[in-house]
Design brief:
Blueprint (H helix, E strand, L loop, with lengths): L1 E3 L1 H9 L6 H10 L4 E4 H12 L9 H9 L4 E4 L3 H8 L9 H13 L2 E3 L3 H4 L11
Parallel strand pairs: 1-2, 1-4, 2-3
Length: about 130
């Protein structure tokens, strides 16, 4: 399984040009392995919509229903183990709680994370899919 960071998921669902071709191709090739979405990504998207930093083509509840129905998408819930892991990540790691939860989810599930977030990409204690 590949865990998608929030922005990657949004760009992929929207067919957005911000998603690097290399990542788009990789999603196509490895989709059958499962694409994980952390529950915190649903919250992040809802907050972006609330603060008008993200405009969706339909209401947020409808968008989430449709985006989670994509083939091979697996919604990964917040578990006590992930919650604790997010507070005990090897340092240094930045203080964004959503990023902490996404990284902890990747570590607990033992899957690679697809992200363009520079702070996460530079963190050596999580497996991030490379970009050439």
């Amino acid at each position: 399984m590949i865990l998608l960071d929030t922005h990657i998921w949004v760009w992929w669902v929207h067919g957005d040009g911000n998603l690097p071709t290399e990542y788009s191709d990789l999603l196509q090739q490895r989709q059958n392995e499962g694409l994980g979405i952390s529950i915190i990504s649903c919250w992040e998207i809802a907050k972006l919509v609330e603060h008008q930093r993200l405009i969706l083509p339909c209401p947020i509840k409808e968008w989430l229903t449709q985006a989670l129905a994509y083939p091979n998408i697996q919604l990964l819930n917040l578990t006590p183990q992930i919650a604790v892991e997010s507070t005990q990540l090897p340092q240094p790691f930045h203080r964004d709680p959503a990023d902490q939860l996404i990284v902890a989810t990747s570590r607990i599930y033992g899957c690679s994370l697809m992200t363009l977030d520079g702070k996460i990409r530079s963190y050596s204690n999580v497996s991030v899919l490379p970009l050439n």
